[in-house]
Write a structure and sequence with these properties.
Bound molecules: NADP nicotinamide-adenine-dinucleotide phosphate
Shape: globular
Structural class: alpha/beta
Strand content: 25-35%
Distance between the termini: 10 Å
Radius of gyration: 20 Å
């Protein structure tokens, strides 16, 4: 098999293709011939040495793939053989062959490409948790999503619009036209405008019912202040710690220091009728049965045309470094994939 390795912590050029013998599925596992592998911001943080979940470097990262089953281990239904699937991989997705526990594999419905399948797990399971499971977004409410043009931002927008909510998105200016086209009602160019002030203006001073924030640091403080009564702040990352293309301890410490360590107190939450919550899909490996339930809902929404991953660009394995640059240069609109 061919795999893209993070050979050491550093800039995108540390990603290198290497060959190894094909893996053999163990009992309870399936083997997938990968046609597309998702690239996520977590992979970038991992490459920079900023991702605490990484078991170590060198490593093959990658949380999701789309492809076809070509072997099954003991105890696995042979009906899986030859099926088109997508799967959640716990690292190792940047490979042309992966073995995966059966409960992390999902049959792809007719008409869903391997690329679309690979674009679903991380972005849509995360968005579903944020918007539906924990955010409890309802018709008529307003949701503000940061990095609206990223994979999670687009997924969250599709779910929120389907629920009948108003969406405010922050994104680089060049993404605004596309985002307006998928239903984002109000756009904020965070490089020029203050989102806290704009959110107040847009909601006529009432504040926002749900905020999705993976920027972190000071942005959490401003978001908390922007909530309406009954408003919820969903925190799920800290991309502001990734300033350059290599780890900067100063940026990391600055982001951590600017977190709202003192703002969310039990008394302030009670007094203001507000909620705060965190999401980390990568810490739900013990809850795969629940995730499968969410996947069922999302596949129903796919059949209805609501869930529509936007695949921006596909890079061959040999150009994995360019894929990481593309995201870190803030050029992606939706999903970036690797193909063997
Ligand atoms: N906790 C979880 O379970 C979980 C799961 C998935 C994703 N996440 C987090 O959610 C965030 C978005 O993920 P995604 O997959 O949607 O991202 P993505 O598709 O890779 O989007 C990247 C976009 O984020 C924006 N951005 C904000 N800060 C950035 C920075 N410091 N460097 C580069 N780009 C930055 C840029 O868009 P603009 O310039 O237009 O804003 C960029 O185009 C990431 O922080 C990721 O770690 C968390």
């Amino acid at each position: 098999m061919r795999q893209v390795w993070i050979t050491k912590a550093g800039p995108p050029e540390v990603l290198q293709v290497k060959e190894a013998p094909d893996p053999v599925p163990k009992a309870g596992e399936l083997r997938v011939r990968v046609e597309a592998a998702g690239v996520n911001f977590a992979d970038i943080m991992g490459r920079m040495g900023l991702y605490p979940d990484l078991p170590g470097i060198p490593i093959v990262v990658g949380y999701e793939v789309g492809g076809r089953v070509d072997a099954v281990g003991d105890g696995v239904d042979r009906g899986w053989m030859g099926r088109d699937v997508f799967a959640m991989t716990r690292f190792g997705g940047y490979s042309d062959v992966v073995t995966v526990p059966e409960n992390q594999v999902f049959a792809r419905p007719n008409g869903m490409s391997a690329e679309t399948g690979a674009a679903i797990p991380v972005n849509y399971f995360t968005a579903y948790m944020l918007v539906v499971v924990m955010g409890g977004l309802r018709r008529g409410e307003t949701m503000l999503v940061h990095s609206a043009g990223g994979g999670v931002g687009i997924a969250a927008t599709q779910l929120a619009k389907n629920l009948g909510a108003t969406v405010i998105g922050t994104a680089s200016k060049g993404k605004h036209e596309f985002l307006r086209g998928i239903g984002v009602d109000h756009l904020i160019d965070y490089t020029k405008e203050d989102f806290e002030q704009r959110a107040r203006e847009i909601t006529a001073g009432r504040g926002v019912e749900l905020i999705l924030d993976a920027v972190g640091g000071d942005s959490f403080k401003k978001g908390y202040r922007s909530l309406s009564a009954t408003g919820r702040l969903g925190m799920f990352g800290m991309s502001s710690a990734a300033t350059g293309k290599q780890r900067s301890v100063t940026s990391l410490l600055r982001t951590i220091a600017s977190m709202p360590w003192l703002q969310f107190t039990p008394i302030s939450l009670i007094d203001k009728n507000r909620g705060v919550f965190g999401v980390n899909l990568g810490h739900l490996w013990g809850e795969v049965t629940r995730i499968r339930g969410w996947a069922g809902d999302l596949l129903d929404l796919w059949a209805k045309g609501v869930v529509r991953p936007h695949i921006d660009k596909t890079f061959p394995f040999a150009e994995a470094a360019a894929a990481h640059h593309y995201i870190q240069d803030r050029r992606n609109l939706g999903k970036v994939l690797l193909t063997p």
